Amino acid sequence: MLPWKRVLRPLAALLLTTAVAVVPAATAQAASAPSSGWNNYSCKPSATHPRPVVLVHGTFGNSVDNWLALAPYLTSRGYCVFSLDYGQLPGVPFFNGLGPIDKSAAQLQVFVDKVLGATGAAKADLVGHSQGGMMPRYYLKFLGGAAKVNALVGIAPDNHGTTLNGLANLLPYFPGAGDLLSTATPGLADQVAGSAFLTKLNEGGDTVAGVHYTVIATKYDEVVTPYNSQYLSGSDVHNVLLQNLCGLDFSEHVAIGLFDRIAYHEVANALDPAHASATTCASAFS
């Protein structure tokens, strides 16, 4: 086996393992999220929750499966909730977030405009998992999103890229391996620490004025490594480590986004800080 194939084989295995966890059953797939509950374009934000919430899935995710738990959690609390699909590659169904991230951010730009037009709201709040917590920062910084977004909540976002437990660092030693990764799945290549995309995104500061940022991380994250690379710097940033809220929470990268209600309680706090309450282990049952 060629050396670069030995590198890409475990890399692909890790990514596909994540994909399987993100997409639990093929029968759950749909072209868009259900119109009952979320992605309901007749929903009008209330005085209590005046901004629609846009959910941004992660790599290999989609607008349905990433949000089967969080979307109902938020709609039951009175939010108008919407989710989009982005980063599709030709001939690859269901598994999204694989295209160039700057192009994905442009898709988010169009979707947010659609949501604001339908709801009549002046601004939206964004909640994203993994790539979905990082990609919107490009929209905020380069595509005018800061004028249309109040808050960005990132759940295990790869804000400064990932080493994939050091595996990505091996790519420079195998000529052609990085090019193959970039060509086949540019959305993955963009997320490797030190990529041209991330260098541009983070140059000059992590945040933009006028947007409230929250990062929710877990120390057991095995995909975005090291986990503290997820944190942002800035005057309007709240970085949260899940285990500081509940030491018994062992969620890793996938679980924190798919069903961790302790993390969800922090999401709710970030969306409505005026009515925030302490997040503890008991939040798993609230």
Which helices and strands, and how do they pair?
Layout (H helix, E strand, L loop, with lengths): L2 H20 L30 E4 L13 H6 L5 E4 L16 H19 L4 E6 L1 H4 L1 H7 L6 E7 L21 H8 L1 H4 L6 H7 L9 E6 L19 E5 H4 L7 H6 L2 H11 L15
Parallel strand pairs: 1-2, 1-3, 3-4, 4-5, 5-6
What's this, in brief?
By secondary structure, the chain is of the alpha/beta class. It has 11 helices and 6 strands.
- What's the total number of strands? 6
Gross geometry = globular
Secondary structure class reads alpha/beta
Biggest sheet features: 6 strands, parallel
Order of helices and strands: HEHEHEHHEHHHEEHHH
Low-confidence stretches: 1-35
Mean of residue pLDDT values = 87
Percent helix? 25-40%
- If you compute it from the alpha carbons, what radius of gyration comes out, rounded to the nearest whole angstrom? 18 Å
Strand content: 5-15%
Note the gap between the termini. Answer: 52 Å
* Tally of individual helices: 11
Lateral strand order in the biggest sheet: 2-1-3-4-5-6
Please characterize this protein's 3D structure.
This protein is of the alpha/beta class. The protein is built from 11 helices and 6 strands. Strands 2-1-3-4-5-6 form a 6-stranded parallel sheet, with helices on both faces. α2 (70-75) links the parallel β1 and β2. The longest helix is centred in the N-terminal third of the chain and has 20 residues, at 3-22. It is globular and about 55 Å long. The relative contact order is 0.13. Residues 1-35 have low confidence and may be disordered.
